[in-house]
């Protein structure tokens, strides 16, 4: 069973991901994720979640992102570019504060995100 996805399908996922965040629709964002999805970000411990920087499962994602959305009423992502591989998409965007971020999203055979990683500039 191949896990290879068409580049256009993965690019569409990346655009949908940005649109869902810009709509501030957490449940719409979560429909893009597998129930057992794992997310890693340096913002996770900063918001009082797992010190490892990783949350696991949709319930944990909902709690983390729900808190983040409450703290960021002006949240907005401006898509810069999308990078694809056979099983992932990297969404390169600028947030409402002018910070550039790459979000790595790996998908399963069903096209649902199983692993995410927010990558920020080191400086």
TrEMBL record:
InterPro entries: NTF2-like_dom_sf (IPR032710), SnoaL-like (IPR037401). Residues 15-96 form the SnoaL-like domain. This is Nuclear transport factor 2 family protein.
